[in-house]
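Chain A, query sequence.
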Amino acid sequence: MFFGNVNGMCAEKVTMTKVLAHRGASRAHRENTVAAFLAARQLGADAVELDVRQTADSLLVVHHDARIAETGRPLTDTPFRLLPDYIPTLDEALDACEGMWVNIEIKNNENEPDFDPTDHIAELVVLALDRRNEPERWLLSSFRLATINRCRLVAPAISTAWLTVEVPEGTALSVSGFGHRALHPYWENVDEALIRECHDQGVEVNVWTCDDPEAMKRLAGWGVDGICTSVPDIAREALRTL
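Chain A, predicted structure.
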């Protein structure tokens, strides 16, 4: 499994809970920047989570919002040369994460100006990853199920995960049925029963975005596979004290 064995006993599950640095070490550095990704490793993260979008000239870049804060313009209307220097390309970000697992969230929201109903961005991301020939290092995720299903279709060797806020009944079965490796729910909507249900379906659970050490311990005790957090150093210390 991408983030460890989900079939172990509780003590093993606690040990195997992984720390994902949310947009890098985003409390210590500006989010989704090379500095944040480099710091994630230094602060004890097992993996990095980042967001990918397209520019007007079809370059893949790492940025959470659809618009550039300084100009208000959508990234899809802006060529790469006009972007602020702090926004890295996907390749630059992956170079900074060398040797680590990387969870790449594909941003494709129908309510945002860069929405792509064809999900072509999924194919562009897969092509970029294929050039690196390290499929075991990547976990592709998206809030849009169609986008992540597209990834599953064009790149079956790369693990995929469905991002959610709420977790309706039957979600674990749906994730398993589509062939996705993991469910990524908002941490406050997760309980031990959900984790058990997902594990019974062979689905991992990586929660976002939890910065509360006591909640991290509780989630790890329930057997959560990964905790996405803006404070990987605090998460590492919290898990170490279990």
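The chain has a mean pLDDT of 94. The first helix runs from residue 10 to 16.
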